[in-house]
Amino acid sequence: MSFDFFPSRRLTIYLAKMFILRIVAVMAMLVLVLMMLDLLGETGNILAVEGNGEPELLKYVALRVPQLIARFLPYSVLLATIITLAGLNQNSEVIAMKAAGLSAHQILAPLLLMGFLVSGISFAFNERVVTRATTSLKAWQAVDYATIPDDPAGRGNVFYADGNNVLMAASAGGTGTNTVFRKVTFYERDDNGMIVRQMSADLARYAAPGWKIEDATVFSVATTQTSQVDELVIAPGIERDQVELGRVDPDAETLPQLSRSIDALKTAGRRTSELEAKWWHKISGPLSAMLMPLLGAVAGFGLARSGNLFIRAVIGMALGFAYFVVDNAALALGSFGGYPPLLAAWAPFFLFLLLGETVLVRTEE
Hints:
Layout: H1 9-47, H2 54-90, H3 93-99, H4 104-142, E1 155-162, E2 165-173, E3 180-189, E4 195-206, E5 211-220, E6 225-234, H5 240-245, H6 255-267, H7 273-295, H8 308-335, H9 341-364
Antiparallel strand pairs: 1-2, 2-3, 3-4, 4-5, 5-6
Helix pairs in contact: 1-2, 1-4, 2-4, 2-7, 2-8, 4-7, 6-7, 7-8, 7-9, 8-9
Transmembrane segments: 12-37, 68-86, 107-125, 283-302, 309-326, 338-361
Keywords: Cell membrane, Membrane, Transmembrane, Transmembrane helix
InterPro entries: LptG, LptG/LptF_permease
C-alpha cells in the first residue's frame, strides 16, 4: 500500500486532464442551453425598446453569461465528477488502480486538486467579472433595457419614509453631495396616514438638509387644485447616508467594497446579518467546487453491474444537490438572523465535507 497522497505523476496528469475536460464540456453545455432559454424569455423585452436590436441582444448575453457561469460552475464540477468516475469504473480502470495498491483517496486526489484550482479561478472570476456584469445588468434592467444611466450602481424604484411622509423615485444615483433622485414623487400625510399633498418633479438634489426639487407640480387634496412651484425643499428627515447605505447590493460588490459597506451600516446602527453572511459566502461558495469530487465519489467505486453503477451515480448526484439545498437554506436563515453569519456560510460546507468523507471511508476504505 502506497502512503503518498497522489498516485504516480503520469496517472495524476491523466485523471486531472480527463476531469478538467469534462468540467469544461459540461459547463459549456449548461451555459449554452440556459442562455438560449433565458434569451428567449428576455428578447421581447429588449427589442420592445425603440432602437434596440442585435447589438443589445449580444450585450445582454455578454452580461448574463458570467452570472450563469458563476451559478452553475459547482453543478458542472459535480456532473463532471460523476461522469469521470462512472466511466473509470465501467471500464475497470478503478479496479486496476486499486489492484495496484491505490486507495480511494489517492484515486480522488487529482480530482480534489483540480476542484481546488477551479475554486480559486471561480473566486477570482466572481470578484473581477461577475460583480461588474451584475452591476451593469441590474442597472440596465432597472430602466427596462433603455439607455443605461451614468451611474450603473444606482437603484431603481426606491422609496423612503420621512416620519408620516413618503418619498418615492424611479431611481437613486450618484454619491456624496451629488446624490440625486429622478422622477420624484413626495407624499405629505397627516397623523392618520391620509395624503394631504402630492409633489412631483423630474429631479431632486441633496440640499443638506432635505432634497431640493425644481419646476415641481403640487397637488392639494383638500382643494383638489394643482399648482406649479419653481423651487421647493422636501423630506428634511431623509439623510444622504441613508440613501447611499440603502443601495448596498452584495452580489454587485467585491469583498473589499462589501466590507466597507458593512462597516458603514454598523456605524449607522443598521442590521448587517444578511450582508455578513453574503460576505462569508463569497469565500465558501466557490470552495464548493472542491467539495463536489468528494460527494460524487460514490459513483466511482463498487461493482459496475446489476444496476449498481446507476444507483451509485444517483446517490452521488443526490448528495451534491442536497448540499446546494442546505447551503441556500442556511444562507436564508442567516439572513433572517436564525444563524450567525459565519455559521450560515460555512456550516453546510463542513457538514457535507464530513458526510462525504464518512461515506467514502465506510464504503471504500
